[in-house]
Design a protein that fits this description.
This protein is an alpha/beta fold. It has a single domain, classed as P-loop containing nucleotide triphosphate hydrolases (Rossmann fold, 3-Layer(aba) Sandwich), CATH 3.40.50. The protein is built from ten helices and nine strands. A nine-stranded mixed beta sheet has the order 1-2-9-8-3-7-4-6-5, with helices on both faces. Strand 5 (about 145-150) and strand 6 form a beta hairpin. The chain is globular. It starts with a strand and ends with a helix.
Length: about 260
């Protein structure tokens, strides 16, 4: 694996984005389906809100967004999944979604599909109610289960009916709800459960343009990451890249950047 681009963690440590076994994010994006027209969302929202990120972190997340999403045929429906719990997947998905929304290229919705251990709502400081699991068991338009965070950004929490929703993640109902989200929002980002706990990310990846793996430095095991990539490839799910989270440097960062 070779380095593709870098991110800084909340604590000021470096993240590393790596290509997945010879397939770069740009190559994967070339396989993404053509963009589809979406139904416009009302644009009279004037409130502004931002997720907590230092300037350096925000700069590096912007690099991620530029490389992954903003090419001519970049992916529009992306799953973020850790190889193991505690990788910071919800943190990453929320910040990428906010940064992508700020580019002004269209509307973005980030969805908490980790019904086993939901955490996305905490990133937005909200209650975990009236979200995805409710949408899977209810009949209201999917837009009514989304909360607006900023002009172009919405999020869908796990919802109150998590236990009932788990069994529906691989159902036709889930496929229909994702299809509905695609008609409302230009980009749909999915926060999924870690790959070593269940196959939810594989199922959801098959309904999306690909998966971004989130690894934790000095915690994620090499064999676990290799197994995750192998399982995704076996299921014909595209691996768009991987984020190595909370990486530390054996040499000063300033010198490292010159290498």
């Amino acid at each position: 694996m070779s380095r593709n681009f870098e991110l800084l963690s909340e604590a000021g440590r470096m993240h590393e984005i790596v290509q997945s076994q010879g397939e770069s994010a740009a190559q994967a994006a070339a396989y993404a389906p053509a963009h589809t027209a979406v139904h416009p969302v009302e644009d009279d929202f004037s409130a502004t809100a931002t997720l907590e990120m230092s300037g350096a972190v925000r700069d590096e997340v912007e690099k991620l967004v530029q490389k992954l999403f903003l090419s001519a045929q970049g992916p529009r429906r992306v799953v973020f999944a850790g190889t193991e719990p505690g990788s910071g997947c919800s943190w990453m998905a929320a910040r990428v979604a906010e940064t992508l929304a700020a580019q002004g290229r269209g509307t973005v919705c980030v969805v908490d599909c980790n019904l086993r251990a939901p955490g996305l709502h905490q990133q937005f400081g909200s209650e975990n109610h009236h979200g995805l699991s409710d949408a899977l068991t209810g009949n209201a338009p999917v837009r009514e289960y989304a909360s607006r965070w900023s002009k172009n950004l919405w999020y869908v929490s796990c919802g109150a009916a998590a236990e009932a929703g788990v069994s529906l993640l691989g159902s036709e109902r889930m496929r229909a709800r994702l299809a509905e989200l695609r008609t409302v929002f230009d980009y749909v980002l999915i926060d999924a459960a870690s790959l070593n706990t269940c196959n939810d990310a594989i199922v959801l990846g098959g309904l999306s343009d690909g998966v971004v793996l989130v690894l934790k430095a000095n915690a994620s095991r090499r064999e676990t990451a290799r197994k995750a990539v192998h399982e995704l490839h076996t299921a014909n799910v595209r691996v768009l890249g991987a984020v190595l989270n909370q990486r530390t440097f054996p040499i000063p960062e300033g010198l490292y950047k010159r290498l």
